[in-house]
Amino acid sequence: MCKANGVKVNDSFVLELIWEDANPMFRFHSKIESQGKGNRRTRKKRACETDLQARTVKKTPRVEKEGRTRVSNRQESCSVSDQVTNVKQSIVDTLNTVREFRADLETRERDLEASLVEIDVGKDFGNQPNSQQ
After folding, report:
1. Which is nearest to 85 in space by CA: 74, 76, 96?
2. Is residue 98 in some structural domain?
3. Along the 133 residues of the chain, how does pLDDT read in single tens digits?
4. Strands 23-30 and 13-20, how do they pair?
5. Integer distance in angstroms from the first to the last C-alpha of the chain?
6. Which of 8, 50, 54, 124 is the S-S candidate for 1 at Cβ 3.0 to 4.6 Å?
7. Residue 97 within a domain
8. pTM of the prediction?
9. Residue 66 to residues 62, 63, 70: CA-CA distances in angstroms?
10. Do the domain assignments include residue 16?
11. Would residue 61 count as lying in a domain?
12. Which domain covers residue 88, as residue numbers?
């Protein structure tokens, strides 16, 4: 178990991206602890300790009608390097999502600014004196 974030080996966890000014920060939350307390546990800065107790939970994959193993029940690797690879991929995916979201926001911002300009032009056109009398 890692004391710093409360996530144990083989536990499901939530990786939360928090923006503080221009600096992103990731916070890990154990799903098991979050469900029990009803609120998310904040990260405590402590050194990680290794838990030498081996977990002897044997997972048997469930097979659906198509004969494929469900993704949620596949045996996952417990090696640190595999977990680091998975976390890195999650971070890359999160960054890509943030970039897509930012691009979408910029597009919407430009559209709204263009709408304001159109409204101002229409307002100015409507306030001009009528010269056809």
Report:
1. 76
2. yes
3. 566 666 677 777 777 778 777 777 777 767 665 555 544 444 443 334 444 344 455 555 555 555 555 555 555 567 888 899 999 999 999 999 999 999 999 999 999 999 999 998 888 776 666 655 4
4. antiparallel
5. 85
6. 8
7. yes
8. 0.35
9. 11, 8, 10
10. yes
11. no
12. 77-126
